[in-house]
Batch of 2 targets.
Target 1
Amino acid sequence: MPTHVGPHASPHPSPHSKPLSNPLPPPYTQIQNLLDTLATGMERVHALLTWQDPTASALAVLSLLLTALAVAACGLPALCAAALLSDMLPPPLRTPFPAMGQNLLRTLPSRADRMA
C-alpha cells in the first residue's frame, strides 16, 4: 500500500528530484585536481614568503643566497649546463628521493591540511 502525500502524488520519483551533486566527467575531474594541486602549491609558497614557518623561510633564503653566490662564482651558462646534465642522468643513477626544494615545499602548511 503506497503512502502518497497530497492528491496528485505519484509512487514514481520525479525526474527533477535527482541529486544535485552529480559527479563530474573525467576530464573536468582532472582539471579540478590540477587546479587543486596548483592552489596548494601556491599556498605553500605564500606560507614560505610570509614567514609562517621561520625555519623553512630561513632555509629558503639561505639556499637563494648560495645560488646567487654560485651564479656569481661560476657563471650562469656553466650552472645551466650542470643542471641540464644532472637532469639527463640515466634512471639507474638517479636518486629515488625528491629534491630538497620539493621536500621543503611539501612540509609547509596549506589550507587543505588544516581542514582535516
Target 2
Amino acid sequence: MKVWEIKPGILSSQLKRPAIIQLVLVNHIRKTAELIDEEIGEFTTEAAKRAELVLQANRKVLDRVANALLEKESLEAEDLKRYL
C-alpha cells in the first residue's frame, strides 16, 4: 500500500504521526492559507486602483462612447474608432 492510499482501519500499514507533528502541519496549512488570502487581497486592491486610474484618465472617451451608445444602442468597429 502506498502512503497516499492509506485507508482508515488498516493500522498495520498506516503511517502514524505524533500529535505535535499534526498540530505543526495544521498550523502551517492555516498560515499558508492566510498568506495566500493576504496576497490575493493585495493583488485585487492594487488592480482595482489601477483600473480606477485608467477609467479616470479616459473619462472623456468613456463619456463619448456612452453617449453614442445611448443614441444608437450599438456601435460598429468603425464608429467606435471615431470615438477613441
